[in-house]
Amino acid sequence: MNRTKIKHMAMIDLIGALTLERPLNEEEYSIIRSFSRSTDWRVRMAAAENLGVVTGPKENVKLLKRLINDVNPMVRAQAIASMGERGGKDCIPALQKKAGSKNYIIRGYAGAAAASIARREGVDAEGLKAWLRGLIETEETEWVKINHHLSLFILGEKEALPKLMDGLKSEDARVVKAAASCLDRCIELEPSIEADIKDYMQKNFTAGTAEYNSMMAEVMEDELADMLAEEMNKLK
User: Which of 47, 152, 171, 177 is the most buried (most CB within 10 A)?
Assistant: First the structure.
């Protein structure tokens, strides 16, 4: 392993040590700010992830606004997800623009991030709902549609839940995983729907079979981590 790679791994480890649910002090923030400009996309991605966990200073969101335009799609995806956690309503227009990306991961994450901000900030959801429905009508990638249905659920549209559950029956493994991940998020937002999801599972998958067990296991998958693993494998 060369010195540069060792250095970048050390940077990622340090970012991990700073990813605490408390405000960064000025010295810590300066480290993240510096690392967000690293030549290694994995370091920049780690910085983007950190900015979605820590609180303050306000410059955090300023960094995320730069990172959502990073040259690497994985960095952009993580920055968009983090913006959904920490951004204000002024970030929604930028996220709506990202929903038109050629990269399907970016399109899917952008809608969910915009919806999360709107829910948190009390933004009128009707305009965003109409926008998301329009995206679903023109979207060709089922993975993205699943994420847009999640966005509608985040904004209070309970009718999106059946669409997410139907995604579990897709022949595309990535769509199944997205649906499971999105349903897990829905349960976090509305715990009462867990019974409905279990009922759906029992009606559509035979309990005790390998297929059923696989579906249940998928619910806890970290989808972005899987995508990151794929990117890392390409570098080997």
Answer: 47
